[in-house]
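About this split. The held-out portion is used to measure sequence recovery: a designer receives only the structure tokens and must propose an amino acid at every position. Recovery is the fraction of positions where the proposal matches the reference. Here is one held-out target exactly as it appears in the evaluation file.
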């Protein structure tokens, strides 16, 4: 399952900020980390890279969200293991 770590730049308005946090907390694919200085760390675990990207796009589209900044992405389990080439 692909995993993406990202930082969400939250809205300044308290009501909009709480709406974003509430909506994210209700999505089983999202784990919330600490919020500091208007930034919220999230981890997204989606069945596919495409679904994870679509989820991040939907977060970006939430009212007041300044940006969604991916900082880590692991999709290694979506591809079969490849044996490293031996140097001859």
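Reference sequence for scoring:
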């Amino acid at each position: 399952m692909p995993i993406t770590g990202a930082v969400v730049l939250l809205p300044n308005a308290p009501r909009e900020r709480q709406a974003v946090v509430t909506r994210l907390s209700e999505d089983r694919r999202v784990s919330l980390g600490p919020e500091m200085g208007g930034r919220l760390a999230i981890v997204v675990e989606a069945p596919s890279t495409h679904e994870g990207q679509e989820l991040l796009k939907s977060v970006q589209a939430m009212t007041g969200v300044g940006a969604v900044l991916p900082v880590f992405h692991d999709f290694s389990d979506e591809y079969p293991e490849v044996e490293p080439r031996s140097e001859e």
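Annotator remark: The CA atoms of residues 53 and 71 lie 13 Å apart.
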